[in-house]
Amino acid sequence: MSAPSDAVVSSPAGDVVDCARRFREHAHVVTDPGGRRLGVVTGPTPRENLVGSLPPLYPEWLGGRVFCEAHGVRFPYVAGEMANGISTTRLVVAMAEAGMLGFFGAAGLEPGEVEDAVRELGEALPGRANWGVNLIHNPGEPALERKIVDVVLRRGVPRVSASAFMDLTPAVVRCATSGLRLDRDGRITRRVRLLAKLSRPEVAEKFLRPAPAALLRSLVDRGELTEEEARLAARVPVAEDVTVEADSGGHTDNRPLAALLPAVLALRDRHVRRHGHPVRVGAAGGLGTPEAVAAAFALGADYVVTGSVNQVAVEAGVSDAAKRMLSEVDVADVAMAPAADMFELGVRLQVARRGTLFAARAARLYEAYRDHAGLHALPGATTAKLEREVFRMPLAQVWELTREFWRHRDPAQLERAERDPKHRMALVFRWYLGNSSRWAITGDPDRRTDYQLWCGPALGAFNRWVAGSFLAEPDNRTVVQIALNLLEGAAVATRAHQLRTHGVAVPAAAAVFRPVRLA
Fold first, then answer.
1. In whole angstroms, how far apart are CA 49 and each of 28, 52, 430, 509?
2. In this protein, which residues make up the domain named [Acyl-carrier-protein] S-malonyltransferase-like inserted helical (predicted)?
3. Do residues 39 and 29 make contact, with C-beta atoms less than 8 angstroms apart?
């Protein structure tokens, strides 16, 4: 039965706002004796004129409880990896101890650095499974991908967030399937739980189904999987958690969450019906306010993943100068720029535009790469401008620094550069792209206008939300306080929406939550 068309709220607006804030209590929708005026009360269940009751609501219950059980967490909330160690071990430990899941930003680091971080995390979080590291796909350095997987398996990392993959690689499949076995009840258990972050349904397909037989066979033939592991891998999806990444900082396809998440959820449901193995789906990208987090859960996300907003956290591994710049970003202060790891492919990532010229300078480098056969083919005026405004040194000197880097990292790159002038140009240009993020991390004052700061519009929304609150103070911005406030606010917004769907006239203020210090 539909509500009366002329129904009005009988409770003062302040009572409705208060009811939304008290979401951990029962809420009761009531009418006047004539059944035409709707109101809301909290506390004991009214004996008369009761339309319906809402049970208590908790931030812990906003997502999928199965996700929390699978990962040993209290909240369906993940602090996603940020490359070059910006998601520090300190950040991961804080998240784990607060009953959430955090990932160390391994992308861009040497295997030895990743191993040191994993060792530190293992010692700080003994017996815990709610932490992990990032495995990023880098088509130009497949050996590095394999080495990171070696660290993961050797050190017993319990969780891995796989990002930027466009297809399954031997390394990511080995990571997901190594250690598969049957428990006493005949259920397949995993040594490593893989969370695949993606932004395209066709990529989701690859992680939602078992790994291809040919790929598994090649891993067995190389001695990287056992016959039993390959046999079990053919029965389960590559990933049991798929994170749908919408418009986010860093690597992104700029997809709207409201379009992408339902598409992947429907795809997941189809594969679950086919294979019978459950897969959890999370949401990432654009989550900088409680309303955005609530919307992600309302769309059906089992968990949420935040990224850009955590760069302003106390524990984030970027300089105070970079954090100040990030704290001034508004929703339109972002731009797309070439990515260092996929420069030759023309892949772009989302960065801050306010206070830095990185996006414009990086775009200039890609245009020069696209239009010329090598450094020797650059017009003199172009070379002079790049040396003066971007590199601040002769290109020959940049090449010497670049050559020294790759001599240790991957000598094959130098061999290719000797044969291919365009590849040499790409490596030289990538020197700037790679160092620009490191300058932001170290806070190099001479390179402030070159800082590469990964973020999307969500950070601008976050800055607007926290303005004037206790979270506006840098020292109060711990990653856990950010998380708890986003979840608390999402619960308020969810309760306000529940009341509205029950016919109560809900004022806009009911869904608004201001950050407070939470335990």
1. 10, 9, 69, 26
2. 372-451
3. yes
Q: How far is CA 46 from CA 55, 148, 150, 508, in A?
A: 14, 60, 62, 26
293 in Cβ contact with 487 (< 8 Å):
yes
Distance of CA 227 to the CA centre of its chain: 34
Arithmetic mean of pLDDT over the chain: 94
Residue 494's closest CA among 482, 480, 506, 484? 506
Amino acid (1-letter code) at residue 444: D
- Cα–chain-centroid distance for residue 79? 7
pTM score above 0.85: yes
The rounded distance, in Å, linking the Cα atoms of 340 and 374 is 18
Strand-pair category, 37-42 with 250-251: unpaired
Q: Per the structure block, which two tokens stand in for 168?
A: 């399954």
Contact 323, 313 (CB under 8 A): no
**Domains contained in the chain, CATH given:** 13-56+491-511 (no CATH), 61-318 (3.20.20.70), 324-452 (no CATH)
pLDDT, one tens digit per residue, over 82-136 is 999 999 999 999 999 999 999 999 999 999 999 999 999 999 999 999 999 999 9
Report which of 113, 86, 84, 81 is spatially closest to residue 408, judged by C-alpha positions: 113
> In whole angstroms, what is the distance from residue 481 CA to residue 476 CA?
8
Average pLDDT score over residue span 458-477? 97
Task: Tell me what pLDDT residue 138 has.
Answer: 84
**Percent of residues in the chain assigned helix, strand, coil, to nearest 5:** 50, 15, 35
Give tens-digit pLDDT for 396-407.
Answer: 999 999 999 999
User: Could you count the other beta carbons within 10 Å of the beta carbon of residue 68?
Assistant: 22
Residue 519, pLDDT above cutoff 90: no
Amino acid of residue 252: T
Distance CA 129, CA 116 (A): 18
Task: Give me 128's structure tokens.
Answer: 């815990």
pLDDT in tens, 302-339: 999 999 999 999 999 999 999 999 999 999 999 999 99
Do the strands 101-104 and 50-54 form a parallel or antiparallel pair, or are they unpaired?
Answer: unpaired
Q: How far is the CA of 311 from the CAs of 20, 70, 166, 448, in angstroms? A: 30, 27, 26, 17
Residue with tokens 């291809």: 212
Contacts 24+ apart (CB under 8 A), 370-374: 370/346, 372/425, 373/421, 373/422, 374/421, 374/422, 374/424, 374/425
Quote the tokens at residue 77.
């909330």
- Give the separation between CA 352 and CA 341, rounded to whole angstroms: 18
Report the pLDDT value the prediction gives residue 272, as an integer from 0 to 100: 92
Give the pLDDT confidence of 135-174 residue by residue, as tens digits: 999 887 889 999 999 999 999 999 999 999 999 999 999 9
DSSP β-ladder status, 188-189 and 50-54:
unpaired
* Cα–Cα dist 360/100, whole Å: 37
CA–CA distances in Å: residue 421 to residues 27, 28, 341, 390: 70, 72, 18, 20
